[in-house]
Write a structure and sequence with these properties.
Elements lengths: L1 E6 L16 H13 L3 E6 L4 H10 L4 E4 L9 H11 L9 H7 L2 H10 L7 E4 L14 E5 L13 E2 L2 H11 L7 E5 L3 E9 L10 E3 L10 H4 L7 E2 L6 H17 L5 E9 L4 E7 L9 H8 L4 H16 L46 E15 L2 E14 L7 E12 L2 E3 L1 H7 L1 E2 L3 E5 L3 H15 L13 E5 L14 H9 L18 E2 L2 E2 L2 E7 L8 E10 L13 H7 L11 E9 L5 H18 L8 E14 H6 L14 H20 L4 E2 L5 E2 L4 H10 L11 H6 L30
Parallel strand pairs: 1-2, 1-3, 18-19, 24-25
Antiparallel strand pairs: 4-7, 5-6, 5-7, 8-9, 8-11, 9-10, 11-12, 13-14, 14-18, 15-17, 15-25, 16-19, 20-21, 22-23, 23-24, 26-27
Amino acid sequence: MRVTLAFNLRLDPHDESQAELLSPGDVDRLVGALCRLGHDVTAVEVSCSPDELVDRILSSKPDLVFNVAEGLSGTAREAYYPAVYELLRLPYTGGGPGLLHVDLDKRMTEKLMAVQGVRVPRGVLIRPNGPDVPEDLPLPAFIKPNFEGSSKGIGEHSLVHTRGQAEEVVRDLLPKYPEGLLAEEYIPGRELSIPILEAWPGGIVEIVEHGLEGTPGFLHYDVKHDGRKQSPVCPAPLSHRERQDILALTQRVLKVMAMPDLGRVDIRLHENGAPFFLEVNPLPSLRPRSSMMTAARYKGLDLRNVMDLVIRSAAERYGLSLAPRPRPPKRFRPTATRPTAREVGLTIGRLRPGPHNAITDVANVKVGHVTHVRDNVRVDGRRSCIRTGITAVVPESPHLFNNHLVAGGFILNGIGEMSGLIQAIEWGWLETPILLTNTMSVGAVHTGIIQYMIERYPDLGRKVDVIIPLIGETNDAFLNDVRLMTNSAKHAVKAIRNAQSGPVIQGSVGGGTGMLSFDFAGGIGTASRVLDPEDGGYTLGVLVQSNFGKMRNLTVEGAVVGRRLDSVYPLEGRRHHNAGSVIVIVATDAPLLSSQLCQLSKRAALGLGRVGSFAASTSGEIVFAFSTANRTSREAKERVRQLSLEFVSEEFANPLYEGVMEATEEAVLNSIFCSAGMTGRKGRYAPPLPVDMVLEVLSKGREAVPPPPVKEAARRARRPGRPRQRPSRTSSDQPFLAGPKSENEKP
């Protein structure tokens, strides 16, 4: 995730007015913690004009703004920055402008709390134009700036015992803080802070007591900002009753003014054991000796953990992904392969696979690849990369051109291309190898097949008819620079000659090198099924070039594991504007007619649905099937009026339908399971499927897969600056105003 740390820099460490701002060391600590969480971090100093502020923030291109900016002046200084983020529709951490405007007004906050029955000190707001110090001011009294934080303006003079002392302090402080002073009854006792982390269980981290030994009985500026004098204690030594009363008061405060992500509630515990609310702080300090970090350390959390919790709750509020953008490992090998779905313990369907669980389990069917992976290819003065290839499925019939195989097919969605398919379906025969490649290589591969066939059959196009080769394509332009036209006719011939029986290399290889499936790397996958003897004992194999699907729909063994994966993988870096395509090649030794192979192809499309396809409008989903039985010579077709073919009765076709559905589903999964990930152009990276996470979800059962979020499409289309509203929480910008009045509230 791209995180922008928005802050105000403290230029003068001795200037009390800048006490809330960050030093360079503070900034370095926060940036370091965010980087260790795996985020791309940009630190942005926001003490500038509005125009420049907008430029700085937008140029950092944040997924989330981590806001620690306190503002420089004015009673709305804290609210200013969240207001800007909202106008820019940017997600940010912490409270909104309404909350940060109200909380800085200490007297207003106390009034809101008193209305809800929260115990607060009796007091009055004193401004330059009145009122003066009231005659009935409870003494001793405490006087402090009403719109300041970090104990600014608070010193030993703040505690007054007579009205005359109060008037003197007001005369001294009011010119410095003309927005107003808060004069209220002094609560003798102990000073406590309760840090809040919304993502922490229960929200309350722990109660912290500020050691007041050697002080006049309260925390003032010199003590708070001198590490040698401040000695916070956590957990605060409290009786069970005192602790319960403090926690109850804190919960009531949070119901009145909920603080998103993080915050702090400050309390004075009276000598008689009664807690009094003082103030809330939605922008608590994260310095090492702060209340927040003192409580966090007691709970075993460091700064990185605290910031992670803040980001987690903010991400949940805005519907953002928590995971950093996946990156390839340092020793990444693009051509590496991994175990198949079955090899890691999954069982797809009920039928057993063949010896290699591949299309090559069908006798005389071979598979060959040519793979191109090259980096730093210079093109027109720039650097690019190549991630492409060709895969050949070769039915090794003796003299295939002169001994045709029965064929058929089905187009589930036609936004794609399989050259030669129309003739093959209409004619019902296969006479060439089948090659798979990328969209812009169809022409070159077409030429290569013809060159290969002419080499093997010199009379082609002279004494015998021409051929129309079969080439399936999917688009690898997301990772591969297709304009380089890497695949050539020679490569097509090489792929055919590389074809062999036995195990098939799967994943990011051959024509599938630059392909993605369900937003993970993966292109070539294969699987097979062998029917029981009573069902004919036929073998059926499937090979796919898979380049389709959205992560959220990925389904494994009937569980939509994609929901879990989609919640932890970032949207950034995915392919958004193209749903891709898939080519399915089905081979069987069952004797079938062309019409039956077309029916079989339709059932293969059901296998695509089982793994998560919904035949998206921009996805070409094409199936081609052939049978190695019923080989028929060209001469017989041309000279014999009636041909005799054996075929499986429709009454006995169901096991084949079930088998092709299972094999297609498993082949697509293998295309993803077997890929180790793939880098690509423009710094893109298609991550490998997190197999361990998939297995964990499956082992826990369906309860481990979260239900689809309400209005999923609306969530993804939501402007990022519009957070979800939680009905169970009070909006920080709309505190409750109705309720009983506290007994000690001064009218």
